[in-house]
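Blinded run. Sample ID left blank on purpose so nobody reads anything into the name before looking at the predicted structure. Input follows.
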Amino acid sequence: MKICARARRALAAIALLCLLPVPTGVWAAGAVPSDPAYVTVRPPNTAGTIAGCSVGIASAQCLAGSLARTHLQVQNVSAAAAIACTFSGPAALNAAGSFLLQPGQSASWGGGTGWLPSGPLNCVASAAASPLYVEYN
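Blinded prediction complete.
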């Protein structure tokens, strides 16, 4: 009998939890809601820097190396040219050590990728003045 009574009390407590109101909205920084169980913690927002790079037929640096970066994304926005990039040394099309971005293709590092390159981003393209989108923070 005692086991059944404990089980009933436990089930009643679980049922009560299901009836609690669901919080809505987001509180401004420094504001304290009436029920501290509903405090939402958000990581600080860091503005991203968006830069373009015009990639030529000779390997050149598009982004300086940095240990302070938390995110990096590149996208080949050229309509027809392929772009190869690397974080170590000069980039070369269709060569080991460089990653190839076909038109419209992108790559990103940081967050859930488990790796964030800190070296300089060097790129080369199959056509002169090929645009590369670069975003980092």
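Unblinding after everyone has recorded impressions. The helical segments are 2-18.
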